[in-house]
Structure formats: structure tokens, C-alpha cells
Design goal:
Blueprint (H helix, E strand, L loop, with lengths): L3 H10 L7 E4 L4 H13 L5 E4 L2 E2 L6 H6 L3 H5 L2 E2 L2 H9 L5 E4 L3 E2 L5 E2 L2 E3 L5 E3 L6 H7 L2 E6 L21 E6 L2 E4 L5 E6 L5 H6 L5 E2 L3 E2 L5 H11 L13 H16 L2
Helix pairs in contact: 1-2, 2-8
């Protein structure tokens, strides 16, 4: 059985299309793993930009998390901040994976603030360049390990940037097409059923879902032996984060003693 993080990574990888230019941000091991996996197995001509580094080689993502200089040193090129913004402004980025606090069925996302249990607003790290990027990137795919009304509310508590820019939502349980029209379920992840997903989703949706394909043996081997041997993908999982953080700290300690 594919684990929750693996299911999300494989679903994200399958969002990539021939000729895509995919950008992934800092501190998103799932997005980076999905991009590397897609380029190796599904879309050989995929251009991957990790932060500002163009076409980093296939590598264990633990290496780049322990040594932030690794990707820039090994990449084909490193773009300056102005060059990245210029590329985005010219429509050169066709795909981005984002992990917001909330996303709803209209494709609106929230990285700004959420409602705390006591009714007060809790501020989040913020939008960074997302309001501009969301309008200019070809396709915006939101993802999250887990599947809950907290992540998928009927309506986001705050709209970050332009509304309706997210086109797909991927969780450990399902894949949705979202936008100004009503949300539609595309697929159920293996081991999940429609009633379970509907009960855990805050927005209404239509559709008769397919079953998302399970991770292939080749993809699983590549993910576990070349891309993420230390399972740092679990840093983006509430349940797996403590153990993954301990593994990362141990790797960092080993690196500093060399």
C-alpha cells in the first residue's frame, strides 16, 4: 500500500505535461521529490526550477536540505531574483506546486491567516510573491498530506491573491479539479472511498471518480533509493514530522562534524 506522502508525490508528478516548466519553492520536499520523479520517469523534457536553480540533477533531497549550496552548485544555471520574476512575468512558468493553509472549491487559496479555535485570527507566514505568481503561472496545483475540512473548507477564511487560480487539488485521499465552476472529484487515492472523502471535504463537489494509479515499482524504487532515502517527505506530514525532523537533525549533525 502506498503511504500518504507517496500518494501525493505520485499524483503531483502526474500533473506534469510535456514541455512544462515547473517551479518549486524552498522547504517543500514533496514538491521537489515530485518534480524529480516526473522528470526521470514521466516527462523527460520537464524543466525543473528549484527556488532559482535550473535543472538540478537527480539527487537525494536530504543532501540539498543539509547543504543549501548543493543545488546551486550542481544546477545547469542559477537565476537571480529579477530573472526569476521576469521569467514568471513573461509566462515562462507553466506549473507550480503550492501547499497553502486552505483551498476551497472555487480555486481560492489562503496563506495569510486562519481562524483559531478561540475565534481570533492567527497570522501565517504570508503570501510572499504568491499573489503575483498565481496570476502569471500557467497552472497552480495545491497539495496537502491529510484530507480535512480544515484544509478544504467551504470557503477560505482569507483569499490570498487573485481568487480562482488553483486548478487542481491533491491530497492523500483524492484529486479534485477546482475553479469558478463547481468543484469536481477526479480520482480517489488507493484505499479511500467516496463517502469518506465527501465527509472530510468542506466544499460540495460533483463527479464520479476514477481510482488514482498506485506508485509503480520503478517509481517506488527511485523515490526510496535515489530521491528521498531518509523519508524527509514526511516533514510535510503532521504525524510524520517529528520523526522526520529528528532524522534531518541527525543528518545535519553528521555534516557539521565532517
Amino acid at each position: 500500500m502506498t503511504g500518504p506522502a507517496d500518494a501525493v508525490i505520485w499524483s503531483l508528478a502526474r500533473q506534469c505535461r510535456p514541455g512544462d516548466v515547473l517551479v518549486v519553492g524552498v522547504g517543500t520536499p514533496i514538491a521537489l521529490a515530485a518534480g524529480l520523479l516526473a522528470r526521470e520517469l514521466l516527462v523527460p523534457d520537464l524543466t525543473l526550477i528549484a527556488s532559482s536553480a535550473v535543472q538540478p540533477p537527480l539527487h537525494d533531497i536530504a543532501v540539498s536540505m543539509v547543504d543549501p549550496t548543493y543545488i546551486p552548485r550542481q544546477a545547469t544555471a542559477v537565476l537571480g531574483h529579477t530573472e526569476v520574476l521576469d521569467l514568471i512575468g513573461r509566462g515562462g512558468i507553466t506549473l507550480q506546486f503550492v501547499s497553502p493553509a486552505e483551498v476551497d472549491g472555487t480555486g481560492a487559496l489562503n496563506t495569510t491567516r486562519v481562524r483559531a479555535p478561540d475565534g481570533t485570527d492567527r497570522r501565517l507566514p504570508g503570501a510572499l510573491a504568491l499573489p503575483d505568481v498565481a496570476v502569471l503561472v500557467g497552472r497552480l496545483v495545491a497539495y496537502r498530506i491529510g484530507h480535512s475540512k480544515r484544509f478544504l473548507p467551504a470557503k477560505v477564511h482569507h483569499v490570498t491573491g487573485a481568487a480562482g487560480r488553483v486548478t487542481r487539488v491533491v491530497t492523500e485521499a483524492a484529486e479534485f479539479a477546482v475553479g469558478p465552476d463547481r468543484a469536481r472529484i477526479i480520482a480517489l487515492q488507493p484505499g479511500h472511498d467516496l463517502d469518506q472523502v465527501r465527509a472530510a471535504t468542506g466544499f460540495d463537489f460533483t463527479g464520479i471518480p476514477d481510482t488514482a494509479p498506485d506508485l509503480t515499482a520503478e517509481a517506488r524504487q527511485l523515490l526510496d533509493t535515489a530521491i528521498d532515502r531518509h523519508h524527509l517527505r514526511d516533514l510535510e506530514s503532521r504525524d510524520g514530522r517529528p520523526a522526520a525532523r529528528a532524522r534531518l537533525q541527525a543528518l545535519t549533525a553528521q555534516e557539521t562534524t565532517r
